[in-house]
């Protein structure tokens, strides 16, 4: 039973790591600027999920606050970058 | 798995709860990889924006449900504060996607990539 749980946790962490690698490739290689912003947004989400997975792995509740903070910061940064792409300035 | 990780109190989780947690974790991992693969492999920006939507809604939802079940079983009381992250993501992900898509459309229009005088409507802008 614990072996099953360890396998599932390791599998999910490997999948999130693979998804982060894909997002990093798109972030570095993306042909247009909006592709890079989209990849960065997905990378924030994957980082939030990685923090949650660390919380499950170490059975610790502190990582939940880390994941919440990462989600908040990612939303603000993505909105700022999208507004910058659209208007050329963030605060008008 | 080293010894100090095995010493954590994971054995308190009952079997009938460990199986759904493991299933949700595996499902979430597969869905996250599918979404990121869509972001990497789809040919156009307007098709590419659909990949992260799968990752953010279904994949993150599965991982959050697994986390909720896990901590509820571990602490023997309902732990539902992961619903905060779920609610926040479900509120902000469409906003982010819409802002990025509008920015992409404006940039493509400004660069003259979208042919909006075409009679059948707009075509996909060509990838440069």
Can you put this structure into words, describing what you see?
The complex is a heterodimer of chains A (92) and B (128). The N and C termini of chain A lie far apart (56 Å). Chain A has helices at residues 2-29, 33-57, 62-87. Chain A has one domain (2-87). Chain A contains 3 helices and no strands. Chain B has 5 helices and no strands. In chain B, helix 2 (15-41) packs antiparallel against helix 4 (50-75) and helix 4 runs antiparallel to helix 5. Chain B has one domain. The interface between A and B is large, with 55 and 60 residues.
Task: From the structure above, extract its key features.
heterodimer; A: 92 residues; mainly alpha; 3 helices; 86% helix; B: 128 residues; 0% strand; disordered N terminus
* Sequence of secondary-structure elements of chain A: HHH
Tally of separate helices of chain B:
5
Give the percentage of residues in beta strands of chain B: under 5%
pLDDT < 50 stretches of chain B: 1-7
Q: Pairing-aware structural class of the strands and helices of chain B? A: mainly alpha
Short description:
The complex is a heterodimer of chains A (92) and B (128). Chain A is mainly alpha-helical and 92 residues long.
What is the element layout, followed by pairings?
The complex is a heterodimer of chains A (92) and B (128).
Chain A: H1 2-29, H2 33-57, H3 62-87
Chain B: H1 3-6, H2 15-41, H3 45-48, H4 50-75, H5 82-110
Helix pairs in contact in B: 2-4, 4-5
